[in-house]
Write a structure and sequence with these properties.
This protein is an alpha+beta fold. Helix content is 17%, strand content 18%. It starts with 5 loop residues before the first strand and ends in a 6-residue tail after the last strand.
Length: 76
């Protein structure tokens, strides 16, 4: 049974998390615990840190379970 990746989004950034490939290294929660929280659901609080800090932390994910993309701004 395949579990779909979880998605967390705000106006600026979208984060996806795929639990099927996560190695549970806990690097994310140890180094940026305001965003990646172990004991709260939803476990990712996308507004708890600057986008640059979130991007930097996601790039450290050893399994690739965490990914992000910057959302396009709407043109008026």
């Amino acid at each position: 049974m395949k579990i779909n990746a979880h998605e967390f989004s705000n106006k600026t950034i979208t984060i996806t998390y795929d639990p099927c490939i996560c190695k549970q290294s806990n690097i994310c929660s140890k180094q940026l615990s305001t965003v990646f929280r172990n004991s709260v659901i939803p476990w990712i609080d996308i507004n708890a840190a600057p986008v640059k800090d979130i991007e930097k932390q996601i790039k450290k994910c050893p399994s690739g379970a965490l990914k992000f993309h910057i959302n396009k701004k709407e043109v008026a």
